[in-house]
Write a structure and sequence with these properties.
The chain is of the alpha/beta class. It is built from 18 helices and eight strands. It folds into three domains: 250 residues, HUPs (Rossmann fold); 57 residues, no CATH class; 78 residues, no CATH class. Helix 4 crosses helix 8 and helix 11 packs across helix 12. The longest helix has 20 residues. One of its GO terms (cellular component) is cytoplasm. Its EC number is 6.3.4.-. InterPro entries: Rossmann-like_a/b/a_fold, tRNA(Met)_cyd_acetate_ligase.
Length: 405
């Protein structure tokens, strides 16, 4: 059975995600689509709109056969580490391909850019370092160094535009696969409809997850998002709305975050992963002075620190994820199974002896520092939503969908 892997967050799952799964299957002629999905906290430093179990069910009802969890240590990291963790999991699960959505839509420009940066590695890294020293953010420095490197090339080969968010992630996936000498082949499909960060719901069938979340938080209703979601996803979100006091967001999590910042103070905050250069003092003052997340963020935002970078620091503060804890986690060490279809279960039964990492379907039977972090993060996510039930990860078993929808 040929398997293709994709890296996802599904925050929430929408029509564009369903198209990605469909086209990935078609493009690579795969029988099985495996998604490695972030847990309850995401790469841009945000609590997930709904938890990993609800998002797993959405995926399995809309074209995904197996969902593995991307551990917190990778799911909340900057793009290279995020990509490294995801690719290692897909490689360990014996995927034949990995397929990502991109603004470019063709794999050759990615391969050309990989070759160019390999040839110009020393100069490229020097340009990044110099740009950072001039006070611009790391992502901006990388983009500037890349543009300058491409402009010096006179071969007229097409290169990928690394100012686009999906292109950037795709490029990191390819770099990660190369670093581990993976046998997986890379494939890409063009992203359709709204842009990755587009906040508006336009007159079309595909909107960004950002736009869908923004629509809900502005109107407090899911009605305007219905056309952009598969029917099963809309019903699952309606059910979530009935069972919970809120959808996941920093707005609802901020009272707890503020308490943690004020309780711990700058000295303790300085030990939290990614907190650096004295920004813990600014965080403390902002928490003292602001009782809303927007007010807090507009105080601490600067040219040096992107909104996403700050949110990642806040995620680690919220979960208590320290530099010391992160130093102990270097690579994925297991495959945390969140769900499968009937076809997915058949694949697991046929291939699991060939997997490079053990499958974890019951957390009580497996011990690992990274898994402990995921369980801890899930508990804190539940608290942020006002839920009293803890240790759901111990109680839930992998979701099983008999027929792929």
């Amino acid at each position: 059975m040929k398997a293709t892997g994709i890296v996802v967050e599904y925050n929430p799952f929408h029509n564009g995600h369903k198209l990605h799964a469909t086209e990935a299957r078609k493009t690579t002629n795969a029988q099985i689509i495996i998604a490695v999905m972030s847990g309850n906290f995401l790469q841009r430093g945000e609590p997930a709109f709904v938890d990993k179990w609800a998002r797993t069910e959405m995926a399995l009802q809309n074209g995904i056969d197996i969902v593995f969890e991307l551990p917190y240590a990778f799911a909340t990291a900057h793009a290279p580490t995020f990509a490294e963790g995801a690719i290692k999991i897909l490689d360990a699960a014996c995927c034949d391909f990995y397929c990502f959505g991109s603004e470019d839509g063709h794999i050759q420009p990615f391969e050309n850019s990989m070759a160019l940066l390999d040839n110009q590695h020393t100069q490229y890294e020097r340009k990044i370092k110099e740009a950072v020293q001039h006070g611009i953010s790391y992502p901006q420095a990388v983009n500037a160094a890349y543009k300058d490197t491409v402009q010096t090339d006179n071969t007229n080969r097409p290169y990928v535009d690394l100012s686009k968010p999906n292109n950037i992630l795709g490029f990191h996936y390819m770099q990660a696969a190369k670093q581990i000498n993976s046998n997986m082949q890379a494939a890409t499909i063009q992203r359709m409809g709204a842009a990755y960060h587009d906040e508006e719901l336009k007159d079309q069938r595909i909107a960004s997850a950002t736009g869908i979340r923004k629509s809900y938080f502005e109107t407090n209703t899911l009605h305007d998002t219905q056309n952009f979601l598969p029917g099963s996803v809309y019903q699952l979100l309606k059910a979530w709305q009935g069972d919970h006091s809120a959808f996941g967001s920093w707005k609802s999590f901020y009272p707890l975050l503020r308490l943690i910042i004020l309780r711990d103070g700058p000295k303790r905050l300085a030990h939290v992963a990614d907190v650096t250069e004295g920004i813990e003092n600014l965080f403390y003052r902002a928490a003292v002075n602001h009782d809303t997340f927007d007010g807090f963020m507009h105080t601490v935002k600067s040219k040096r620190y992107t909104w996403t970078r700050i949110q990642r620091m806040l995620t680690h503060i919220f979960t208590g994820y320290s530099y010391n804890t992160r130093s102990k986690i270097n690579t994925p060490t297991y495959l945390r199974l969140l769900g499968m279809t009937q076809a997915g279960r058949l694949y697991l039964n046929k291939q699991k002896k060939n997997f490079k990492l053990p499958i974890v379907s019951k957390v009580s039977s497996f011990s690992d520092p990274s898994l402990d972090i995921d369980i801890h993060a899930a508990n804190l996510y539940a608290l942020g939503l006002g839920k009293s039930e803890m240790n759901v990860d111990y109680k839930n078993i992998p979701i099983f969908i008999r027929e792929s929808q």
